[in-house]
Design a protein that fits this description.
alpha/beta, 5-stranded parallel β-sheet, about 375 residues, 6-stranded antiparallel barrel, about 30% strand, SH3 type barrels, Elongation Factor Tu (Ef-tu), domain 3, Rossmann fold
């Protein structure tokens, strides 16, 4: 959308942070008719940011309003708290309860910013939703659109946008994605524009868990349930207060007491919500050679039939790895890794790339690990 020749009516999602403020300012400077909107998503609207954690608080809405005033654009606060609770928070809790590891940022982009917000924007006559994400939408000669990595790989956020489909891309604007600027330069630009948020710390972790204590957040909603921590042979090594408090690849907080016989650290290998058991083992047992993912979503045109080679990203800040992937029966994505990877957990998203183009994403359902030596 950034290279569209006509003047657009743009709804700029303003979180109260520096990125979204600069994105809104750039959209307005490009000649578009921009309106700012802050999404009230918190279950407790009286809450305030603690340090650099969290977002979507009253403090953030005030910061967004001040930025909109400086830019000179209309500004509104839209209450999407109930939709956010149902589609993001409750999904987050349910996934952990089922022994999976969700990514709430992907779910928010899919269900809130580019679904609930976009639908409302289009109904009100807006042409596009603008955000401060670092990614690029490319308009092809045939009129179709592609999502690409940001020009600066160090800030690329295309992974959390890999759930956007062709319709959503057609109404997405990312003004920060096609310029190679450091975060310091973005802050300098904000300062030049007179935006108070120029020095505001970035938010971290999960926005609705302001103190960063995910395990405590889940415990309040799911309660405690003592279970066993076992090794790969089923020997009990310790206990826990709820299997939901663990994720594949976790090393710290295992509560297994004595060191392993080989003296090496142990990691979470498996989480079984059925019998509330957590299995731990050596790092080598985390090696994943293949996986099956479900609920595929394609960014623009779908991939060609049959297996093909791509690069894949498995975490928001993870690196790329080469894979062979094939869509089976239109529902399951079968992926084989060129080299084993570690820390892959069901519930996470795998995002496929063809060079810088985002092909699409799917939710990891099962993994296959490399057979142990001598097996």
């Amino acid at each position: 959308m950034t290279d569209a020749p006509r003047r657009l009516r743009v709804l700029a999602a303003m979180s109260g942070g520096v990125d979204s403020a600069v994105a809104a300012a750039r959209a307005a400077e490009a000649g578009h008719e921009v309106t700012g909107v802050h999404l009230a998503l918190s279950e407790n609207p009286k809450s305030f940011r603690t340090g650099a954690r969290g977002c979507c608080t009253i403090e953030d809405s005030h910061d967004a309003r001040r930025a909109a005033d400086v830019i000179g654009i209309p500004f509104y606060v839209w209450d999407l708290a109930e939709r956010f609770r149902e589609d993001v928070v409750e999904d987050f809790v349910a996934e952990y309860e089922a022994g999976r590891t969700p990514n709430p940022c992907l779910r928010c982009n899919e269900k809130i910013k580019f679904a609930a917000l976009l639908d409302k924007a289009l109904a009100l006559g807006f042409d596009a939703v603008c955000t401060g994400h670092y990614a690029t939408v490319v308009l092809r000669e045939d009129g179709s659109r592609e999502l690409h990595r940001a020009s600066d790989m160090a800030k690329d956020q295309s992974y959390v946008l890999g759930v956007l489909d062709d319709r959503q891309l057609a109404h997405a604007m990312f003004p920060l994605g096609d310029t190679r600027t450091t975060k310091a330069e973005i802050r300098e630009e904000a300062a030049r524009r007179g935006l108070f948020v120029a020095k505001k710390p970035d938010s971290h972790d999960i926005c609705f868990i302001a103190d960063g204590d995910t395990q405590g957040f889940l415990a309040k909603r799911l309660g405690t349930a003592e279970g066993a921590v076992v090794d790969e042979s089923g020997n009990r090594l310790g206990s826990h207060d709820g299997a939901y408090g663990f994720t594949i690849g976790q090393r710290k907080g295992l509560r297994i007491g004595t060191p392993a016989p080989d003296g090496k650290p142990r990691y979470v290998l498996d989480i079984s919500p059925v019998d509330n058991t957590v299995t731990v083992g050596p790092a080598a047992s985390l090696d994943v050679t293949a996986l099956t993912a479900i609920r595929p979503r394609w960014c623009g045109r779908p991939p060609a039939d049959g297996p093909a080679t791509y690069t894949a990203q498995l975490r928001a800040h993870g690196g790329e790895t080469e894979v062979r992937a094939e869509l089976v029966d239109g529902e399951e994505l079968h992926v084989t890794f060129a080299e084993p990877v570690r820390g892959v957990a069901p519930g996470q998203a795998i995002v496929l790339y063809d060079d810088t183009r985002v092909v699409g994403s799917a939710t990891i359902a099962t993994t296959r690990r490399r057979a142990a030596a001598g097996a």
